[in-house]
Design goal:
The chain is an alpha+beta fold and 118 residues long. It is 25% helix and 11% strand. The protein contains three helices and two strands, in the order ββααα. Strands 1-2 form a two-stranded antiparallel sheet. The longest helix is centred in the C-terminal third of the chain and has 16 residues, at 89-104.
Length: 118
C-alpha cells in the first residue's frame, strides 16, 4: 500500500443501491514501517503447476450463499431463494417478523399466531 503517512482511505460497500455503507477506514500511520523500500522481491514466486488435462476435465458449479439474505435465513423461514427475493415485499415482511421473534426468543411455530395478527 502506498498511501502518504497520516492519510485515510475509506472503503464503501455499494452493492445494493440505496443501502450503501462505509465498510472500513484504512488509516496510514504517521510513522512509516520502514525507512526505505525493501530490497527483496515484493511479489510471490509462481507455483509450478502442470497444465490441466482438458480431455479428463470436468465442469463443477460452486454456489456461494450467506449473509442476511442467505440460504440459512430462507430455510429457517421455510422459503426458497429466488432471483426476485430482494424485491419481494412478502419476503421482506416475513424477514422482519422473524427478527422480531428472535429478539423475543420465540420460534417460528410459537409465534405463528402473533405473525398472523401483525
Amino acid at each position: 500500500m502506498t498511501g502518504k503517512p497520516g492519510s485515510r482511505l475509506s472503503i464503501f460497500d455499494q452493492f445494493y443501491e440505496g443501502l450503501e455503507y462505509e465498510l472500513v477506514d484504512l488509516v496510514y500511520s504517521d510513522t512509516p514501517l520502514r525507512a526505505r523500500v525493501p530490497d527483496w522481491p515484493l511479489t510471490l514466486p509462481t507455483i509450478p503447476l502442470p497444465e490441466p488435462d482438458l480431455d479428463t476435465a470436468s465442469r463443477n458449479e460452486v454456489v456461494f450463499t450467506g449473509g442476511m439474505m442467505g440460504e440459512m435465513v430462507a430455510q429457517d423461514m421455510g422459503e426458497s431463494m429466488g432471483p426476485r427475493m430482494m424485491q419481494d415485499d412478502e419476503f421482506r415482511h416475513r424477514l422482519v417478523h422473524q427478527r422480531r421473534r428472535r429478539r423475543r426468543g420465540q420460534s417460528r411455530h410459537e409465534a405463528g399466531a402473533d405473525a398472523l395478527a401483525e
